[in-house]
Write a structure and sequence with these properties.
This protein is mostly beta strands and 188 residues long. The chain contains no helices and 16 strands. It has 2 domains: 41 residues, no CATH class; 104 residues, no CATH class. Strand 4 and strand 5 form a beta hairpin. It is elongated, with a radius of gyration of 20 Å. 18% of the residues are buried.
């Protein structure tokens, strides 16, 4: 039997087995669903939009449970300022600190743009407006968010050796810092 359940009626969705989920409804009842492509490896991932982070895509094989709740305050037009230029301080491995306008991986220069990376196969697309700091580590980078959360990301040129470099514009000069010379970035 095919069922359609509005998300407003769902409290949680928990992976039940390889091809099914247990759906807990807001009224306290539970339903096991299976037999559709969304509940198998054909699922292209669960996309989570987090206003204090950005977008996270969880592949089906990593998915365990999703709890749904009403947002504290619905987003309105006024919540979207359009972004601004990315500014901060880049510190090199030699300890030199360069402050000014920052162009990350030579293509992200606004706070509305995304820093991409992976953690255990989960894709992160972090809005630069939410980033407090980025520190290079051996196989990626530690990304600290304004809300106190931190993630160790890898798997994208934004946070690994294939990064094309970080450009800092200050006092009419342009400084280019290669990933091998980069130590950390801190937003201002």
């Amino acid at each position: 039997m095919r069922r359609q359940i509005p998300f407003a009626e769902i409290a949680s969705i928990m992976r039940f087995d390889a091809e099914g989920v247990l759906v807990a409804l807001a009224d306290g009842s539970e339903i096991v669903l299976s037999g559709t492509p969304e509940l198998t490896e054909s699922n292209r991932g669960i996309v989570v939009y987090d206003p204090a982070l950005g977008v996270v895509v969880v592949p089906w094989h990593q998915f365990q449970e999703l709890s749904l709740h009403r947002s504290e305050a619905p987003a309105t037009y006024e919540h979207f300022g359009g972004g601004e230029a990315l500014t901060g301080t880049v510190v090199t491995m030699s300890g030199e600190a360069l402050s000014g306008l920052v162009r990350w991986d030579v293509d992200e220069e606004s706070t509305w743009e995304l820093l991409n990376g992976q953690l255990d196969g989960i894709q992160f697309h972090v809005e630069l407006s939410q980033v407090l700091a980025i520190r290079k580590f051996r196989y990626g980078a530690k990304v600290d968010l304004l809300d106190g959360r931190s993630f160790y990301l890898s798997g994208s040129n934004d946070v690994k050796w294939s990064n094309k470099g970080i450009e800092v514009r200050s006092d009419g000069s342009v400084y280019e810092v290669a990933w091998r010379d980069f130590e950390q970035f801190r937003r201002e």
